[in-house]
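Cross-posted from the bioinformatics board.
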Amino acid sequence: MTASSLTGTTALAKLALRRDRIMLPAWLYVVIIGVCANAYTFVKLYKTPSSRAALVASSQGNPALLFLYGRLNGTSTGALTAWRYGVWGALIAALMTVFLVIRHTRADEEAGRLELIGSARVGRQAPLVSALAVAALANAVLVVVLCVALPLLGLPAAGSAALSLAIGTCGLAWAGLSAVAAQLTSSARAARGLAIGVLGAAFLARAVGDSAGAGGPGWLTWVLPLGWTEEVRPFAGERWWVLALPVALFFLGIGLAFVLAARRDYGAGLLPDRPGRPSASALLRGPFSLAWRLQWGSLAGWAAGYAVLFAVCGAAAKGIGQLFGTSSALEKEFTRLGGQSGLVNAYLASLMLLAGLVAAAYAVSTVLRLRAEETEGRADPVLAGTTGRARWGLSHLLVAVVGTAALLAIAGVATGLGYGLRTGGTGGEVVRMLGAGMAELPAALLIAGIAVAAFGLLPQASVAVSWTVVGIAVALNIFGQVLQVSHWVLDISPFAHVPRLPGGTVSASPLLWLSALAVAFAVAGLGGLQRRDIG
Amino acid sequence: MANAIEASGLRKSFGPTKALDGLDLTVRTGEVHAFLGPNGAGKTTTIRILLGLLRKDGGDVSLLGGDPWRDATRLHSRLAYVPGDVTLWPGLTGGEIIDLLARLRGGHHDPKRRQELIELFDLDPAKKARAYSKGNRQKVALIAALASDAELLILDEPTSGLDPLMEANFRECVNAERHQGRTVLLSSHILAEAEALADGVTIIRAGRTVETGTLAEMRHLTRTTIDADLGGPITLDGLPGVHDATVGRLADGGTRLRCEVDNTALNEILGRLSAVGVRTLTCRPPTLEELFLRHYSERPVAAVQ
């Protein structure tokens, strides 16, 4: 890389900051407020060491909580904060970075904007370097603000620094990974999918490693960067050297991205486009087959990810409940949670909750494809044909419904298979878990319905509204309980009304009214679509 | 049905911006109608209202005898549309998209005609759309529209990305369509193209129609440019309808005259010229470009009715 290949980097970085002046602060706000609110809650609600010890005892014995949040490394307020929001803060920082880097590299290239920029006095590597610089800057801001804010809340400075750096370097690691992903695929959608897929794998790898217990595959926590956040052990004898791992990954990613970028043409991925069919097959004949054709690839990717990850998580359930029981406090808690079968059920139920929340995100991204088709002008040729607006809207909604149902079925069956194969009784487990997975469907579809309503009635705001709804559901279901949020607020999330299966009691009525609400929102959205302007 | 498209007093605003402000447009069945205006004049907005993609704020509009908003899907089986900015699904091939657009429109499609057009426009139908240039994307939409049996073609700046060779092929195709009795609405700002193809012309500016009629009518209402070499001196002083006259003396005592003449005064002028003795004479009707430029340079917006 020569100096001239970097010409214009500063100007491009300023442009990126200008374009992201609302989105970037919003992401930072979510991470910072999340960490600080958790720290504040623990400082306020768990003042005495004994109250914290009781919380730790009950949590340590609950693999479902270890699965969702990570390992507990101590009983101090700081350790609790790091446990409850360390991994999730790092996850959100990583997501922020993925969107940021892809948006200013592959997405601009795909849209042709980089061509305009590349024709000006701008070096070949400047767009990638500027995107990485902005990503590094965003994560640095995150680290600095947290380093200042956490001690103000009364946490030790060293631990605060370790936690902030653990979160920020995890974001950096995904800057490197996204830079590589942006070189591999020719579409921004696929590049984002790739980077987020690795993030999902990282979350589940550490989740399984943390919750599997002594005999389980604890090493899984070490495999991917999200687990490294825990291994830094903030507030519990910080292991600073672990921070070198994500930073190394960041630089490794940058290096690889430059090597790959040098080997490809503008606009191309690493794999050249092969010629396709010179005429359409008889199957591609209307809006529904078109929507399927456009979306099946992404569904296939999601389905493969779901199958592998939930099978692994299901298999890990066997070790649960065997190692706890050394102290009397733990034993009491163990019994309160329902003994070993109760613990396994709680773990499996939290797996299904996660499957539901992520499936809702899939459903929203699938529904929002409608908005992308509209703004990019590809809705016009469909609607200028004999396809009515409602049919066009339904075509993508149908893919969302079928895809979400398929993902939840796969989550259930894969978990049942993974667990059943290790314990015996595969058939029974598969059926039981399939039911548990499908119970999440109405809640996921209600969120998809809200996305349809936003698309039909508030098209300009539909992307922001839909993802905010997903974010609220995740926040309430993952963090609501420990933050002692009132039930009225928790009940906002559709997933709060889903029976916790397996183990919980099933009642049809919440599933029915969730479905009815989903339909009502979708109908309102399609109605709005028929009355408004397109474009 | 005498008129394929009838719009009068069409209004549409986007927030504070008035895109259409009382636009009139009449396209007779069977004619090629050029819809002219500079960038941002409201051509695409009008077309999107005609397609039922936008809802009009006011005015009357009918398309093929129906209401383009209410009867959208029914009417769309009788028309084909080529957008000005063609965006295609990047993962589908050109050939797949041509077939898909045909099936989305319904109606009959002739595979032989499709193949002829693909060859005429020199398109590789096996390529993925993401690899196409702007011109090639436009060809995909054009081939799909021209291969259809639609009675109305709505073409929004269809040649803006085509090379001159393909543009010539396009003109040939549109002329062929006219002979088959199809109606074509051709939005453009390439005036030579409109001049070569159009029967009727509508010129719009800032969301209003400033001129409409056949090309012949529009020329009739305007001036003719005269260049003449004459045998002797001539005075045109005091003659109504003569503009911008320049008279030059030739070495042999003759006169060179160049002037613009209102068509009503043409007879009178020609009488005077022949009285002096005409050596050479060229009379040229105004080009569309001259008509167009006159509308945009001479009259301020407020004076346009």
